Description:
binds zinc ion; mainly alpha
Amino acid sequence: MADLPRLEHRVSIEQHVASPQALQALRTEVEQREREQRDVAARAGQARLAHTSARNAYASARTGFDNWLATRTATTDPAQDPEVLRRTRELDLLEAKRRETQVALESLDREMLDSTQRVAALRERESAMLDDARPALQRARFWQELRVFGARLAVTLPLLVLAGWFWARKRRSDYWPLYRGFVLFAAFTFFFELVPYLPSYGGYVRYAVGVVVTAIVGHYVIKAMRRYLAQRQAVASQTEAQRRGALDADAALKKLAANVCPGCERPVLTTGQAAANFCVHCGLKLFDACGACQTRKNAFFHYCPSCGSSADADAPTAPLPA
Ligand SMILES: [Zn+2]
Ligand SMILES: [Zn+2]
């Protein structure tokens, strides 16, 4: 039962998109753009590093120059003028380098921003496509669930129906133990293999089956009760001898051993020391005396336990000892 969904393919949202080719193309493009984005990010990282180092170089050169200039002003040595020019040129070069790396970094940052926005727009289009397909997917899932449930029901319901027929018609058959095994199997299959896999609306199915089963069982219980009561009434209208003759001797002995009247199935009672020879409820004779030796004995014994005389109904029985 758990394996039954394998009859079906898994339903995916891609199958319900209006144009699967367009979705595929879109996804390929997203992938490509993301690759580009990663590449730009790597280059921007390197450019940032280069810019930082150029800026640091310029800053340290500038500090050096300022210090040197301060010293020179203090000494005012005219022989140092060419040195001033050389150092200024050097500083200009460093500044140009700093500016160049900054421009490169800014351009890469812009490229990065563009790329991110493009990817976001593509992603949005993709999710819009998938959103459009969602209702169709839900419908498809619902029908698939229904088909799987139908398959499970198609396996378990005939078993249950057949089991019900066996129970109704074959209970007196010699093969009943076999049929009973089948009935138990079918009931188990239905209630333990199907019910856990019921879909969300399957509660109604469960209730419907519960109502039907309750109705059928109730019908049989009431019929059985009526039969039992009718039987009791018929027995009550018979004479004591007729009732005793109709009872099965072995079953009667068993019931008497349990201190229960075999006729009316109520407890055998007595008062004080009096021996319980008759049922106080229905008057059935429970104990009598052997016709030959007068020993008190169970009325359902076929032979006297003391002398072995036959205790058939037509054999004379002595009056009970007082
Ligand atoms: Zn009785
Ligand atoms: Zn006897």
